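**Protein record**
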Amino acid sequence: MKRRLALAVATAAALTTVLSGCGALDTAMDCVKTADAIATSVSKLEQAVSNASNDPTQIEESLNSISTELGNLKDTTDNADLAKAVDDLTKGVESVRTAVKNGDTTPDIQPITDGATEIAKVCTPG
């Protein structure tokens, strides 16, 4: 529930930025893309973790998808704060990936949630 709230805040903040005209248009567009990708990514990961007993490969597939999305986001943003937030989230993904490789079938995805929260802060206007 906490993760979904953080993602909702990120999405709302990004949309507020776009609709109110606050901040540079490029930053607003980067934030919208990021919020959307993060919401999708975290949702996929949550599903993969909850289904890990049925198919543990889903976690790795989900992490690969998240990594790809984050790589694309980093390549498309010229906003330093957003790029750093994406880097931090990438580190969270790598932390979870390491836990899974070490045999954890129910890894702590808090580092990913923390990364999503940081992106919400970057995307919040004002």
In short: The chain has one domain: 2-123. The two ends are 26 Å apart (CA to CA). Residues 92 and 112 are 5 Å apart (CA to CA).
